[in-house]
Amino acid sequence: MKIGDTVQFCNSDVINFYGVTGVVLEVDTYRVTLKDTNGKRRVFSRQNCRVVDTPAPADEFDVVAKPKHYQFFPDMEAIDVIARSMTVSEFRGYCLGNRLKYRLRAGAKDDPKQELDKSDAYLKLFERCKGLCYAE
Question: Is the pTM for the entire model greater than 0.90?
Fold first, then answer.
C-alpha cells in the first residue's frame, strides 16, 4: 500500500465504514489516511484496508492527452468534473478559450509543438466530454 493507491475499508464489523473507498494520501505502519469519493479525509487502521487499484505507471500518462496531474481518481479526470459543471455551450466556450490560450502562448512556456498539440486536444476533449454537461 502506497500513496496514490485506491483502497477500500474492508472490516465488516464496522458497518458504517465498510466499503468506503478512497485514494491514499498518507500511510505508515499502522494507519492509512485517504480522501474518499466524497472528498472527505478519513483515517483507518491499515490492517482494515485493502488496495483495489494502483495508479498507472508514469509511462502510461501522456503530457498532452492524459497528464498525470489531472488524474484524480482511476475513472475521472479534471476535465470530466469541469464538463459536469457546465452547459454544452459553456463547455464549448471553455474548450475554445483554452485552445486559443495554447496557440497564443506557443513556444513561450513549453515546446511549441507540445503547446499546439495541447490546443488541438481541446477539440477532442470537447467531443469526448460534451455528453457529461447538464442541460441548458
Answer: no
